[in-house]
UniProtKB/TrEMBL annotation:
Signal peptide: none annotated. This is Uncharacterized protein. Its main location: other. It is found in: Cell envelope. Pfam families: LRR_1. Gene3D superfamilies: Ribonuclease Inhibitor (3.80.10.10).
Amino acid sequence: SLSGLSKSSYLRGQELLFIIVSTRLSKPSPLARNSLLSLANNELFGKLPASMTGNFTHLLYLNLSFNALSGEIPASLAQALELTSLFLSNNFSGNLLSGFGYLQ
């Protein structure tokens, strides 16, 4: 499970929304269409749950850089077909998923 998160934010259109979550992110909400999500530099650690990335189908921008995320990139992240910007610096291990070849 993903740990270390106390607050997160994302953009929906022009409106900034804040979501208060527990220190264990176990049941994330689906993101709105044209969403941006940046959790960079938040001291997150552990594995990114596949259930979380399965909600990213309409995500345009994802930044998870400079945390301490481990394991492989979840295959469900390749289902974010509207994703145009992806930042994973200093996280994860293993190979880049073949599904990322379909991203525009």
